[in-house]
Amino acid sequence: MSDIIFIGLSLSSILLLVALGLSITYGAMGVINMAHGELVMIGAYTAVLAGIHLGLNLFFALPLAFVTSGLLGLLIERVLIRRLYGRIIDTLLATWGVAIVLQQLVRLEFGLSFFGIHVEGLGSGLQNMAVPAFLTQPVDIAGFTLQPYRSFIIVVTLLLTGLTWWLMYRTPMGAQVRAIMRNPQIAAACGIDVRRVSALTFAYGSGLAGVAGVLLAGFKTVMPEMGASVVVDGFLVVVVGGVGSLLGTVLAAGILGQINGVVALLSNDIIARAVVFAVVIGLILWRPRGLFSFKSR
Fold first, then answer.
1. How far apart are CA 17 and CA 156, in angstroms?
2. Residue 135 DSSP code
3. Where do the DSSP E strands lie in the chain?
4. CA-CA to 181 of 20 to 30 Å: which in 86, 113, 147, 256?
5. pLDDT tens-digit profile of 200-248?
6. What is the DSSP string of 97-118?
7. Is the pLDDT score of 157 beyond 90?
8. Quick check: 130 and 247 in contact, CB under 8 A?
9. CATH 1.10.3470, applies to 2-112+143-286
10. Distance of alpha carbon 234 from the chain centroid
11. Per-residue pLDDT averaged across 27-44, rounded?
Protein backbone atom coordinates (compact mmCIF):
# COMPACT_ATOMS: atom_id res chain seq x y z
CA MET A 1 0.00 0.00 0.00
CA SER A 2 2.83 2.42 0.86
CA ASP A 3 4.39 1.78 -2.58
CA ILE A 4 1.10 2.67 -4.27
CA ILE A 5 0.80 5.87 -2.25
CA PHE A 6 4.35 7.00 -2.98
CA ILE A 7 4.13 6.17 -6.70
CA GLY A 8 0.87 8.08 -6.98
CA LEU A 9 2.19 11.08 -5.04
CA SER A 10 5.45 11.23 -7.00
CA LEU A 11 3.59 11.06 -10.32
CA SER A 12 1.22 13.76 -9.07
CA SER A 13 4.20 15.90 -8.09
CA ILE A 14 5.83 15.73 -11.53
CA LEU A 15 2.48 16.38 -13.21
CA LEU A 16 2.03 19.40 -10.96
CA LEU A 17 5.40 20.92 -11.91
CA VAL A 18 4.64 20.44 -15.62
CA ALA A 19 1.09 21.77 -15.29
CA LEU A 20 2.05 24.83 -13.22
CA GLY A 21 4.12 26.16 -16.09
CA LEU A 22 1.40 25.41 -18.63
CA SER A 23 -1.31 26.94 -16.47
CA ILE A 24 0.34 30.29 -15.78
CA THR A 25 1.66 30.51 -19.35
CA TYR A 26 -1.72 29.91 -20.95
CA GLY A 27 -3.53 31.98 -18.33
CA ALA A 28 -1.26 35.01 -18.70
CA MET A 29 -0.34 34.78 -22.37
CA GLY A 30 -3.06 32.73 -24.05
CA VAL A 31 -0.35 30.49 -25.50
CA ILE A 32 -0.76 26.72 -25.87
CA ASN A 33 2.89 25.70 -25.67
CA MET A 34 3.28 22.35 -27.41
CA ALA A 35 7.05 22.54 -26.84
CA HIS A 36 6.61 22.41 -23.06
CA GLY A 37 7.28 18.66 -23.04
CA GLU A 38 10.54 19.20 -24.90
CA LEU A 39 11.61 21.66 -22.20
CA VAL A 40 11.06 18.79 -19.75
CA MET A 41 13.32 16.66 -21.97
CA ILE A 42 15.96 19.41 -22.11
CA GLY A 43 15.99 19.52 -18.32
CA ALA A 44 16.54 15.76 -18.17
CA TYR A 45 19.41 15.85 -20.69
CA THR A 46 20.94 18.79 -18.82
CA ALA A 47 21.13 16.60 -15.73
CA VAL A 48 22.68 13.74 -17.75
CA LEU A 49 25.35 15.99 -19.30
CA ALA A 50 26.04 17.70 -15.98
CA GLY A 51 26.77 14.30 -14.47
CA ILE A 52 28.96 13.13 -17.38
CA HIS A 53 31.05 16.26 -18.02
CA LEU A 54 30.86 18.31 -14.83
CA GLY A 55 30.50 15.55 -12.27
CA LEU A 56 27.44 17.26 -10.77
CA ASN A 57 24.93 15.18 -8.87
CA LEU A 58 21.16 15.49 -8.73
CA PHE A 59 21.15 18.40 -6.28
CA PHE A 60 23.32 20.62 -8.49
CA ALA A 61 21.54 19.46 -11.65
CA LEU A 62 18.16 20.78 -10.45
CA PRO A 63 19.03 24.52 -10.46
CA LEU A 64 21.14 24.07 -13.59
CA ALA A 65 18.20 22.49 -15.43
CA PHE A 66 15.89 25.26 -14.19
CA VAL A 67 18.22 27.93 -15.60
CA THR A 68 18.85 26.06 -18.87
CA SER A 69 15.19 25.37 -19.65
CA GLY A 70 14.21 28.83 -18.44
CA LEU A 71 16.69 30.55 -20.75
CA LEU A 72 15.62 28.37 -23.68
CA GLY A 73 11.99 29.23 -22.93
CA LEU A 74 12.87 32.93 -22.82
CA LEU A 75 14.60 32.60 -26.19
CA ILE A 76 11.55 30.87 -27.70
CA GLU A 77 9.29 33.61 -26.35
CA ARG A 78 11.48 36.45 -27.61
CA VAL A 79 12.16 35.00 -31.06
CA LEU A 80 8.86 33.31 -31.90
CA ILE A 81 5.90 33.56 -29.54
CA ARG A 82 6.13 37.34 -29.04
CA ARG A 83 5.20 37.77 -32.70
CA LEU A 84 2.14 35.54 -32.43
CA TYR A 85 0.23 36.89 -29.40
CA GLY A 86 -3.52 36.74 -29.89
CA ARG A 87 -3.24 34.03 -32.56
CA ILE A 88 -3.76 30.88 -30.53
CA ILE A 89 -3.78 28.43 -33.45
CA ASP A 90 -0.61 29.96 -34.85
CA THR A 91 1.18 29.67 -31.51
CA LEU A 92 0.04 26.06 -31.17
CA LEU A 93 1.42 25.15 -34.59
CA ALA A 94 4.60 27.17 -34.10
CA THR A 95 5.44 25.61 -30.73
CA TRP A 96 4.62 22.18 -32.14
CA GLY A 97 7.22 22.87 -34.81
CA VAL A 98 9.70 23.95 -32.12
CA ALA A 99 9.04 20.67 -30.30
CA ILE A 100 9.83 18.64 -33.42
CA VAL A 101 13.01 20.65 -34.06
CA LEU A 102 14.25 20.17 -30.48
CA GLN A 103 13.57 16.42 -30.65
CA GLN A 104 15.48 16.06 -33.90
CA LEU A 105 18.38 18.19 -32.69
CA VAL A 106 18.76 15.99 -29.61
CA ARG A 107 18.63 12.85 -31.76
CA LEU A 108 21.29 14.20 -34.12
CA GLU A 109 23.56 15.72 -31.50
CA PHE A 110 23.46 12.78 -29.13
CA GLY A 111 24.23 10.43 -31.97
CA LEU A 112 27.38 12.43 -32.79
CA SER A 113 28.21 15.14 -30.26
CA PHE A 114 26.45 17.65 -28.05
CA PHE A 115 27.40 21.28 -28.61
CA GLY A 116 30.77 20.15 -29.94
CA ILE A 117 31.46 17.73 -27.08
CA HIS A 118 31.78 14.11 -28.12
CA VAL A 119 29.59 11.94 -25.89
CA GLU A 120 30.66 8.33 -25.79
CA GLY A 121 28.10 5.56 -25.82
CA LEU A 122 24.95 7.63 -25.97
CA GLY A 123 23.88 6.25 -29.34
CA SER A 124 20.40 7.51 -30.21
CA GLY A 125 20.12 9.48 -26.98
CA LEU A 126 18.75 6.86 -24.56
CA GLN A 127 20.30 7.49 -21.18
CA ASN A 128 19.73 7.14 -17.45
CA MET A 129 20.52 9.65 -14.75
CA ALA A 130 22.44 8.52 -11.69
CA VAL A 131 20.55 8.99 -8.41
CA PRO A 132 22.57 9.36 -5.17
CA ALA A 133 22.78 6.00 -3.39
CA PHE A 134 21.16 7.22 -0.18
CA LEU A 135 18.02 8.13 -2.15
CA THR A 136 17.63 4.62 -3.58
CA GLN A 137 17.47 2.58 -0.36
CA PRO A 138 13.96 2.13 1.10
CA VAL A 139 13.64 2.96 4.79
CA ASP A 140 11.25 1.13 7.15
CA ILE A 141 9.71 3.37 9.80
CA ALA A 142 7.27 1.68 12.20
CA GLY A 143 6.27 -0.84 9.54
CA PHE A 144 5.87 1.85 6.90
CA THR A 145 8.24 1.68 3.91
CA LEU A 146 9.57 5.11 2.96
CA GLN A 147 10.84 5.56 -0.60
CA PRO A 148 13.58 8.24 -0.29
CA TYR A 149 13.73 9.33 -3.93
CA ARG A 150 9.97 9.57 -4.35
CA SER A 151 9.82 11.45 -1.03
CA PHE A 152 12.49 13.80 -2.39
CA ILE A 153 10.34 14.44 -5.49
CA ILE A 154 7.36 15.31 -3.28
CA VAL A 155 9.42 17.68 -1.09
CA VAL A 156 10.93 19.51 -4.10
CA THR A 157 7.47 19.89 -5.64
CA LEU A 158 6.01 21.25 -2.40
CA LEU A 159 8.82 23.80 -2.15
CA LEU A 160 8.42 24.94 -5.77
CA THR A 161 4.62 25.07 -5.45
CA GLY A 162 5.01 27.20 -2.33
CA LEU A 163 7.46 29.45 -4.19
CA THR A 164 5.04 29.78 -7.10
CA TRP A 165 2.18 30.67 -4.73
CA TRP A 166 4.36 33.30 -3.04
CA LEU A 167 5.42 34.78 -6.37
CA MET A 168 1.82 34.85 -7.65
CA TYR A 169 0.07 36.21 -4.53
CA ARG A 170 2.71 38.04 -2.48
CA THR A 171 4.84 39.94 -4.98
CA PRO A 172 4.20 42.90 -7.33
CA MET A 173 5.17 40.71 -10.29
CA GLY A 174 2.52 38.15 -9.31
CA ALA A 175 -0.11 40.88 -9.08
CA GLN A 176 0.82 41.96 -12.59
CA VAL A 177 0.59 38.37 -13.87
CA ARG A 178 -2.87 37.97 -12.33
CA ALA A 179 -3.97 41.29 -13.80
CA ILE A 180 -2.85 40.16 -17.25
CA MET A 181 -4.74 36.87 -16.78
CA ARG A 182 -7.92 38.83 -16.14
CA ASN A 183 -7.58 41.43 -18.89
CA PRO A 184 -4.27 42.13 -20.68
CA GLN A 185 -5.58 45.27 -22.41
CA ILE A 186 -6.66 46.90 -19.14
CA ALA A 187 -3.41 45.78 -17.51
CA ALA A 188 -1.44 47.47 -20.29
CA ALA A 189 -3.57 50.61 -19.93
CA CYS A 190 -2.65 50.69 -16.23
CA GLY A 191 1.03 50.83 -17.09
CA ILE A 192 2.00 47.15 -16.82
CA ASP A 193 4.66 46.07 -19.30
CA VAL A 194 2.69 43.09 -20.61
CA ARG A 195 5.44 41.83 -22.91
CA ARG A 196 8.10 41.87 -20.21
CA VAL A 197 5.87 40.16 -17.66
CA SER A 198 4.78 37.58 -20.22
CA ALA A 199 8.39 36.80 -21.15
CA LEU A 200 9.42 36.31 -17.51
CA THR A 201 6.32 34.19 -16.89
CA PHE A 202 7.13 31.99 -19.86
CA ALA A 203 10.74 31.62 -18.68
CA TYR A 204 9.64 30.66 -15.17
CA GLY A 205 7.17 28.06 -16.46
CA SER A 206 9.89 26.66 -18.71
CA GLY A 207 12.25 26.44 -15.74
CA LEU A 208 9.69 24.42 -13.79
CA ALA A 209 9.47 22.05 -16.76
CA GLY A 210 13.24 21.59 -16.64
CA VAL A 211 13.10 20.67 -12.94
CA ALA A 212 10.31 18.18 -13.70
CA GLY A 213 12.57 16.61 -16.35
CA VAL A 214 15.38 16.07 -13.84
CA LEU A 215 13.03 14.48 -11.31
CA LEU A 216 11.47 12.29 -14.00
CA ALA A 217 14.90 11.15 -15.18
CA GLY A 218 15.51 9.57 -11.79
CA PHE A 219 13.17 6.67 -12.54
CA LYS A 220 12.55 6.81 -16.30
CA THR A 221 14.80 6.47 -19.31
CA VAL A 222 15.90 9.83 -20.72
CA MET A 223 15.10 9.93 -24.43
CA PRO A 224 14.16 12.54 -27.06
CA GLU A 225 10.46 11.54 -27.02
CA MET A 226 10.03 11.59 -23.24
CA GLY A 227 8.28 14.97 -23.24
CA ALA A 228 5.49 14.06 -25.67
CA SER A 229 3.32 12.14 -23.20
CA VAL A 230 4.22 14.46 -20.33
CA VAL A 231 2.85 17.54 -22.06
CA VAL A 232 -0.44 15.76 -22.79
CA ASP A 233 -0.79 14.83 -19.11
CA GLY A 234 0.08 18.41 -18.17
CA PHE A 235 -2.67 19.82 -20.37
CA LEU A 236 -5.14 17.34 -18.85
CA VAL A 237 -4.27 18.68 -15.39
CA VAL A 238 -4.71 22.29 -16.56
CA VAL A 239 -8.08 21.56 -18.18
CA VAL A 240 -9.39 19.71 -15.13
CA GLY A 241 -8.03 22.19 -12.59
CA GLY A 242 -9.06 25.35 -14.40
CA VAL A 243 -6.82 27.67 -16.41
CA GLY A 244 -4.80 30.01 -14.19
CA SER A 245 -5.96 28.40 -10.94
CA LEU A 246 -3.08 27.32 -8.67
CA LEU A 247 -5.39 25.48 -6.28
CA GLY A 248 -7.17 23.72 -9.15
CA THR A 249 -3.86 22.68 -10.71
CA VAL A 250 -2.66 21.18 -7.41
CA LEU A 251 -5.91 19.31 -6.84
CA ALA A 252 -6.16 18.02 -10.42
CA ALA A 253 -2.53 16.83 -10.40
CA GLY A 254 -3.17 14.94 -7.15
CA ILE A 255 -6.33 13.27 -8.44
CA LEU A 256 -4.98 12.25 -11.85
CA GLY A 257 -1.57 11.20 -10.53
CA GLN A 258 -3.04 8.96 -7.84
CA ILE A 259 -5.52 7.39 -10.27
CA ASN A 260 -2.74 6.70 -12.77
CA GLY A 261 -0.41 5.23 -10.14
CA VAL A 262 -3.01 2.99 -8.51
CA VAL A 263 -4.54 1.65 -11.73
CA ALA A 264 -1.10 1.08 -13.30
CA LEU A 265 -0.01 -1.05 -10.34
CA LEU A 266 -3.26 -3.02 -10.28
CA SER A 267 -3.34 -3.58 -14.06
CA ASN A 268 -0.97 -1.89 -16.55
CA ASP A 269 -0.02 1.53 -17.92
CA ILE A 270 -2.36 1.31 -20.93
CA ILE A 271 -5.45 0.71 -18.82
CA ALA A 272 -4.27 3.40 -16.38
CA ARG A 273 -4.14 6.02 -19.13
CA ALA A 274 -7.56 4.95 -20.41
CA VAL A 275 -9.02 5.36 -16.92
CA VAL A 276 -7.38 8.78 -16.53
CA PHE A 277 -8.85 9.96 -19.84
CA ALA A 278 -12.27 8.66 -18.82
CA VAL A 279 -12.08 10.56 -15.52
CA VAL A 280 -10.99 13.73 -17.33
CA ILE A 281 -13.90 13.47 -19.77
CA GLY A 282 -16.32 13.00 -16.88
CA LEU A 283 -14.93 15.99 -14.98
CA ILE A 284 -15.06 18.18 -18.09
CA LEU A 285 -18.70 17.25 -18.66
CA TRP A 286 -19.44 18.07 -15.03
CA ARG A 287 -17.30 21.23 -14.80
CA PRO A 288 -16.52 22.52 -18.34
CA ARG A 289 -14.39 25.40 -16.98
CA GLY A 290 -12.43 23.17 -14.63
CA LEU A 291 -12.69 22.50 -10.92
CA PHE A 292 -11.58 26.06 -10.17
CA SER A 293 -11.50 28.98 -12.56
CA PHE A 294 -11.95 32.73 -12.58
CA LYS A 295 -15.59 33.79 -12.48
CA SER A 296 -16.81 35.76 -15.45
CA ARG A 297 -18.43 39.12 -14.79
1. 10
2. G
3. 113-114, 117-118, 139-141, 144-146
4. 256
5. 999 999 999 999 999 999 888 888 888 888 888 888 888 888 877 788 8
6. HHHHHHHHHHHHHHHSEETTEE
7. yes
8. no
9. yes
10. 7
11. 88
